[in-house]
Amino acid sequence: MWISKQMKPAAATADADLGVTTISGRKAGVLTRGEVRDLPVYGPGGYLWTPANGTAALVIKGGPGGEEQCVAGTRPLEEVKQIEPGEVYIYGPGGNSVYLKKDGSVEITGGQVSVSGGLSITGQLTVNGQPYAPCAC
């Protein structure tokens, strides 16, 4: 009886924290309740990203005491447009974006678009709002 009264319950730990990135890269540093470095950065499959310094980042904790941590996402750096459920909007610095819309169309916005390897387009292509027609030179 005496032993059971002396045992203290383990302190509650959060399964996730919101912090601020301090080190950018494939292994990030994040300040939550203290700074943690060399955290792996995860994102959706096929999507590579690095959180910028000073952005709010979601840190997920795992393991017995929450000692296994990773960065799983960040808040948008800027106000982004409203999108419909199921749509995907990827944006980067300088106004570059790729917008996959639920109607099947794709909007690519950027200063200069370069393609290496090849590009296949099925459907209608518009450039600056005008239907594209190849040169009959």
Can you tell me about this structure?
The protein has 137 residues and is mostly beta strands. Helix content is 4%, strand content 36%. The protein has a five-stranded antiparallel beta sheet with strand order 3-2-1-4-5, with no helix packed on it. The chain has a three-stranded antiparallel beta sheet with strand order 6-7-8, with no helix packed on it. Strand 2 and strand 3 form a beta hairpin. The radius of gyration is 23 Å and the shape is elongated. The mean pLDDT is 82.
Any chance you could write out the topology, listing elements then pairs?
Blueprint: H1 2-6, E1 16-23, E2 27-31, E3 35-40, E4 56-62, E5 68-74, E6 88-91, E7 97-100, E8 106-109, E9 126-127, E10 130-131
Antiparallel strand pairs: 1-2, 1-4, 2-3, 4-5, 6-7, 7-8, 9-10
In helices, the fraction of residues equals under 10%
Strand order across the largest sheet: 3-2-1-4-5
The residue ranges in which pLDDT falls below 50 over 5 or more consecutive positions are none
Quantity of strands, as a count: 10
Order of helices and strands: HEEEEEEEEEE
Strand content: 35-45%
Average pLDDT works out at: 82
